[in-house]
């Protein structure tokens, strides 16, 4: 394809198999691996949502059709179910990582540094949209990936950016080298095929039990977070059975709303840490509760978060506290922005920071 690609034409040619055989095999393996064993990916990318035959590879772009499931939407006052911004952010995390692994010569997944997303036009449950992952630059340590969501007629609905740290070490580079990668791909496919039936039964069980990504969070409001951390700190000081890192007791501002949650299997990625999309979902839900409390508006129908940014600082596990407050600078400018942080209850350290505008 020469010159710029027209979005409408880009969508029309999706019916043609324009992905190489190796890319298709790698994509199937990546999707199967990241969606295995009841991980958070299964809530974002259920089996029927991704239209695998529509996968298209053009230059540094990878695109696929996606049918929005109701399980990733907020119900509005008029009865419509709008695609939640944190669910789009989680989808951005998933598909941009897949795009990176398809385009990087060492097929590195990396770890997320920042995720940013702006909703240009809302989309709703049941609609078919087009996901476009664009690898802008892949370096030795850092990769920059863009993602767009377009309607079936090419209209831009959302645009996001994903920055990843991709340095994986020499062993990974060796295993994905030109000579060894074909063998590694065959072994990965064999391993995944042997687990296929088990994953399918677990996925259906998890989806039937939970049904919605915000249900699995199980956020609980915390009225006095300082007392929570001080109590934990005193317990750590009294117990000398094992040495641990010195706990930091965070300072909470007046008017800062807090929620707590525990990272379980359904919120995790395949490495056991909290999925980046699950962090975004928890941040959105905590922000919606804060906005609802501060404005006295309905939590479900009176406002929509249309822009979100998340910065990931360290792996997130165990019990967490999410603190949200109004952004002081935005209040001066007359903007509606909240900011927050995700804290480890064990260490008191900030694991992630975020901002949402509504």
Description:
Helix content is 32%, strand content 28%. The protein is built from ten helices and 14 strands. Helix 2 crosses helix 4, helix 2 packs across helix 6 and helix 4 packs antiparallel against helix 9.
Structural class: alpha+beta
Query: Helix coverage percent of residues?
Result: 25-40%
**Which term fits the overall shape?**
globular
| Terminus-to-terminus distance | 39 Å
Task: Please state roughly what percent of the residues sit in beta strands, choosing from under 5%, 5-15%, 15-25%, 25-35%, 35-45% or over 45%.
Answer: 25-35%
* Elements, N to C (H/E): HHHEEEEHEEEEHHHEHEHEEHEE
Q: Tell me the Rg in angstroms.
A: 21 Å
Q: How many extended strands?
A: 14
- Strand order, biggest sheet? 1-2-6-7-8-5-11-14-13-12-10-9
Q: With helices defined by DSSP (H or I, 4 residues minimum), what is the helix count? A: 10
Mean pLDDT across the residues is 78
**Largest sheet entry:** 12 strands, antiparallel
Low-pLDDT regions: 1-5, 7-17, 199-210
